Amino acid sequence: MSRPRRGARRKRARGKGRSMPRRADAHSPGGVGNLTHLERQGTVQVYMNPAPFTASGPPTDADSVTYSLPPGTEDEQGPSDGTRLRLLREMMSEAFLCLDAHGRIREVNSRAAALLGLPAEELQGQEPWVAEPALAGTSLHERLMAALTTREGGRFLAELPSRTWLDVNVQIVGEETWVLAADITGRQRAENEVARTEERFRQLGERFQVALDSAQMAVWETNLATGQVFRSEGHDRLYGYPHPLTEWTHERFIESLHPDDRMGVQTQLDDIFAGKADTYASTFRTAWPDGTWHWLTSRARVLRDATGKVVVIRGAILDITALKETEFALQEAVRTRDDFLSLASHELRTPLTSLRLQAQLLRRLGDSHPPQTLSAPRVQEKLESTERQLRRLGALVDNLLDVSRIRTGKLDFQFTEGDLAAVVGDLVARFTDEARHTGVQLTASVEGPMVGRFDRLRLEQVVSNLLSNALRYGAGNPVRLSLTRHEDGVRLVVRDSGPGVPFQDRERIFERFTQGDNARRRGGMGLGLYIVRQIVEAHGGHIRVEDSPGGGATFVVELPI
What sequence ranges are listed for the domain PAS (predicted)? Predict the structure, then answer.
């Protein structure tokens, strides 16, 4: 049987009273929304949505309307290829533009028209940035113009003036330029928010690290379930490593502890794993690779699972070395103060007691022997003893004043030209009578003259303190003094034959209120040698103590005058 012609079929269909619903124009102001599927041959079921799709979900059946294909667009095989293409463009969730070689719009779907804010028929034949002037100068305008000029496609992101973000794909098709744009505003805003959040966390992390470094502090966490160990950037520096180690282990931590502190730390850790405690606080010393010891304090808290097993230990550690040194210095200062008060009260009381006794003896002598005058031998003896005690008392007071001046940086010097040999010779003569009174033989060898620039009174103080020490601690044995020239200046040597100074005390005796065991037995406030060193160093010299041949102590002063 032959097939009837197409026209005959259409006539028979019209004769039976069937009519095809007229297809709505996809470019009409009411515009076809997003087409979702085809129903029945020759009829299209579309969903109408006057606004672009948003994240709220697809349109509902309440928005649906049925449109028919235009006459002459179907046959037994269904819609024509052109019709299918137009329907496909309308069904897309992306915006579509077809531009001619001059950038004018040849075709546009309703999604693109909605983004541009104009009906589709008004956009036909216009450049997008002319139809919507707000697009002029935007990145979308620039990139499309570049594609039209170079005839090269590409993909890029663009933001519209309405703050809508598009993922734009440009393809060159013959003389036309096809533009497909997906609305990614939601995704872009989420990515921007993630980026802002990451930046905020980065800044917070940097500030936190600065705070940790400023406080010489670090934080750490050990996950016993996974074996992972987290350490903040400065953790390893607190243990003396300038750069982070590849790993940090419990064994390394324990090995770094001072032997006296190791047991206490291990006991606390054992209590945690035994379930006796959930917190940890300990102060300990740790050995740095350079051999020095540093004080750290650590606090930690544990997290347990349902069975009570320790899963995570996290804590903070702080370097308190400076704090500990200050604490020790304060303790030493208190001890020194107490020692000084005890020594000062004793040393000052000694000459005062002697002066009081001498005054009482003089009064009794005057009462018992009225005719005796001040020139009488017994009176002269008492007066000489009184003068010695007054000199001693004056020296003690001067030393106390000088220490106060040194601490405040006000120990003054008056440098003048003079002969140091003459200064030393006068002092030796002055101390000869005192040495004879104490039963000590004082000998001196002074080369001269030795002219230089120095503070006469201060160097007299140096020689006096050294001779007084030698007479006091020499145990009645001879004391020898020498002043000689050498290639860099002069050398003053005071040598006694006493018990000497132990090697471990040879630097310490030059500190304030410091004495050796022998010095404590023989009195003194421990200020003389401290002041001597300050004066000698102010003259550019230095002082040291050595063993004397045959026993005793030798103090050597070298001055560059």
Answer: 81-126
Quick check: 232 pLDDT over 70?
yes
The backbone torsions φ and ψ at residue 323, rounded to the nearest 5 degrees and listed phi first, read -65, -45
d(CA 518, CA 498): 10
**Alpha-carbon torsion, ordered 348, 353, 358, 364, to 10 deg:** 160
| Spatial CA neighbour of 236 closest among 300, 302, 286 | 286
Local confidence band at 370 (pLDDT 50, 70, 90 cut-offs): low
Strands 479-486, 442-446: pairing is parallel
Distance CA 396, CA 527 (A): 9
Task: Please give the helix or strand (H or E) that residue 245 lies within, else none.
Answer: none
Q: How many beta carbons lie within 10 A of that of residue 112, not counting itself?
A: 25
Most confident stretch, 5-9, 240-244, 354-358, 485-489: 240-244
CA-to-CA distance for 385 and 378, rounded, in angstroms? 11
Residues 400-410: what's their mean pLDDT? Answer: 62
∠ CA 532-537-543, rounded to 5°: 60
Residue 345's pLDDT is 59
Contact yes or no for 299/313 (Cβ under 8 A): no
Which of 25, 155, 154, 39 shows the shortest CA–CA distance to 90? 25
What are the tokens at 269?
A: 């850790």
Cα dihedral 130/136/138/140 (nearest 10):
20
Please, which residues bridge with residue 510 across strands? none
DSSP states along 120-167: HHHHTTS-HHHHSGGGTTSHHHHHHHHHHHHT--EEEEEE-TTS-EEE
- 128 near 148, Cβ under 8 Å? no
- Are 441 and 435 within 8 A, CB to CB? yes
Q: What is the pLDDT of residues 168-181, one digit of tens each?
A: 999 999 999 999 99
Per DSSP, helices labelled H in 408-554 are 420-438, 456-473, 517-522, 528-538
Q: What is the mean pLDDT of residues 224-235?
A: 85
Note the pLDDT of residue 126.
Answer: 92
Q: What is the DSSP string of 454-470?
A: E-HHHHHHHHHHHHHHH
Our answer to whether residue 294 is catalytic in this structure is: no
Is residue 129 within 8 A of residue 145, CB to CB? The reply is: no
Of the listed 346, 369, 437, 542, which one is catalytic? 346
Helix (H) or strand (E) holding 209, with range, is: helix 185-214
CA gyration radius for the chain?
A: 52
Tell me how crowded residue 319 is: count the other CB atoms within 10 A of its CB.
20
Q: What is the DSSP string of 14-83?
A: HHTT--PPPPPPTTSTT----EEEE-STTEEEEE--SS---TT-PPPGGGEEEEEPPTTSEETTEE-HHH
pTM assigned to the model: 0.41
Q: Answer for the pair 548, 479: CB distance below 8 angstroms, yes or no.
A: no
534-541, Cβ contacts within 8 angstroms, sequence gap of 24 or more: 534/402, 534/406, 534/411, 535/455, 535/458, 535/459, 535/461, 535/462, 536/462, 538/411, 538/413, 538/458, 539/454, 539/455, 539/458, 539/459, 541/489
